[in-house]
Amino acid sequence: MTRTSLPAIERLRANCVETPPPEGSQITSPCLSFRGAALPRGGHVQLRENGKKALAHRVAYEAKYGAIPEGMVVMHLCDNPACCNPDHLTLGTKKDNAHDAVLKGRLKGKAKNALPNLIECVSLLQKSGKTPEEIAHEIGYVLTAVRSVLDFLEDDEELYEGTQASYGDDLADHQRLERLVYDQHTSAAVMAIPESYGPPLPVHLECNFTTH
Questions:
Q1: Residue 23 scores a pLDDT above 60
Q2: Residues 6 or more apart from 66 whose CB is under 8 A from it?
Q3: What is the dihedral of CA 178, 198, 186, 168, to 10 degrees?
Q4: What does the alpha-carbon distance between residue 183 and residue 151 come to, in Å, rounded to a whole number?
Q5: What is the distance between the alpha carbons of residues 45 and 30, in angstroms, rounded to a whole number?
Q6: What is the pTM of this model?
């Protein structure tokens, strides 16, 4: 007798239980937390859909609201990554998700310690007229990591300048660093950087560059 698998959304609903939202969450209604295999990072859970692995909260979102537009992510308003309550889910860009994580203090990991001086060095060297290849050679980083940081800084410029104008340099710098850490593509590019490159800077990475 052939075993027929239930659709992903039915399996998801059968494995969700009501739980209170995390402490400090602005959401007051119960979460629907999925009891499945947690991913190594981020705490999201997954199940199989059409023979492929799928994130449970994305399955829940699409079941109620329809297809997720290309380039968009599904964000948790409740800050519970296992929650599949569609009322707790909303669409956003990767930048929206990163900014939300910054404001709610969800960031951690070794990349956070490796990046502060890299941002400063790459930015100053770019302003001095250096090419990505020259920057990578001068500071001893792989070209992929340098290009990822430069791409991020370009995309983040408007948000950074808005924060800087309203709240000053310190907060703008802090939030830009947090967004950069949370940017999955950029973090992946720099995760191989040895711990020794974290603060304080080695002598050869001191950023005493002159910009023109």
A1: yes
A2: none
A3: 30
A4: 11
A5: 18
A6: 0.52
